[in-house]
Design goal:
82% of the residues lie in helices and 0% in strands. The chain is mainly α and 282 residues long.
Length: 282
């Protein structure tokens, strides 16, 4: 067992060393030249809700405090930006507008909690808020997904959903560490773990994957092994385990976001006419 853990640790270290290389290979144009689609934005809202709840709980537990404060501020800004995207996209469609309105109302309450002192009573309700926003954002992502013509957007949504599942799993783990959740939380851990593993397997087996995406997903798989081992050990109260869950969930989130972004670019190229793709007349 100790040998296995050391092997995983070496694996995680290698992942960190290789991460900049893969990120460069997957690098997208600067943010000034990239517009986030409504589908991407809805997917991000789904994962950001879970991520913010996770980070709030991490701060209550004193896990990676400085980094968690920075990540939380970044997540709040990102939520606002993506909410603005779906709000604009929903204009003219009453059903979609109602979903966005529900997310907006729920977000106002969650934001107040996130900016308040780290109290036990508020920590107990923050998970429910995150779940409600994630469910509404899921419905929103489905509506935007149905409007897409390229089947590649299935992979976009799948990568985004796996980001959400990683954040949800880490959030539930932090709840358990904070003494909340009980048996229901244990059931949620197992279900979320299975869904993430299935999603990662489907992404890895996608026939459209480029070498860069394959390398990215392999790193995500390696991080997942480390993440899963830490999450499964819910008996020990080691600070190292909590830190492992905090950091590996953030790395997996980065990898899923990178993969989603490249799938979006591939979908865009696939929908271009031959003249636009080749830059010359046939």
């Amino acid at each position: 067992m100790h040998t296995f853990k050391r092997s995983l640790l070496r694996l995680a270290t290698c992942s960190l060393l290789l991460l900049p290389i893969v990120c460069n290979a997957l690098a997208a144009p600067s943010s000034a030249s990239v517009s986030v689609s409504p589908l991407e934005a809805a997917g991000k809202l789904r994962s950001l809700a879970q991520r913010q709840a996770k980070l709030y709980l991490q701060l209550r537990l004193g896990v990676e405090r400085e980094a968690s404060e920075r990540w939380l501020a970044e997540a709040v800004r990102s939520f606002d930006e993506n909410l603005a995207v779906v709000t604009r996209a929903a204009q003219g469609d009453s059903s979609t507008t109602r979903i966005v309105g529900r997310i907006t109302t729920q977000w106002e309450g969650l934001r107040l909690t996130l900016s308040s002192p780290l109290e036990t009573s508020k920590a107990q309700g923050i998970a429910a808020d995150a779940e409600q926003i994630a469910i509404a954002a899921q419905a929103l992502a489905l509506r935007f997904d149905l409007a897409q013509e390229s089947p590649m957007y299935r992979l976009v949504d799948l990568a985004s959903r796996n980001d959400m599942l990683a954040q949800r799993l880490a959030r539930i783990y932090m709840q358990i560490r904070a003494g909340q959740g009980g048996k229901a939380a244990e059931v949620d851990v197992e279900q979320t773990r299975k869904e993430f593993a299935a999603g990662l397997k489907e992404l890895a087996g996608a026939s459209d994957n480029t070498p860069a995406i394959k390398a990215n997903l392999e790193l995500a798989r390696q991080q997942w092994l480390f993440f899963e081992m830490a999450v499964n050990d819910r008996v020990k109260s080691s600070e190292n385990l909590r830190r492992d869950v905090a950091t590996t969930s953030e790395r997996i989130s980065q990898m899923m976001n990178e993969a989603s972004l490249v799938y979006v670019q591939m979908a865009g190229r696939a929908s271009e006419p031959p003249l636009a793709q080749n830059g010359r007349k046939r």
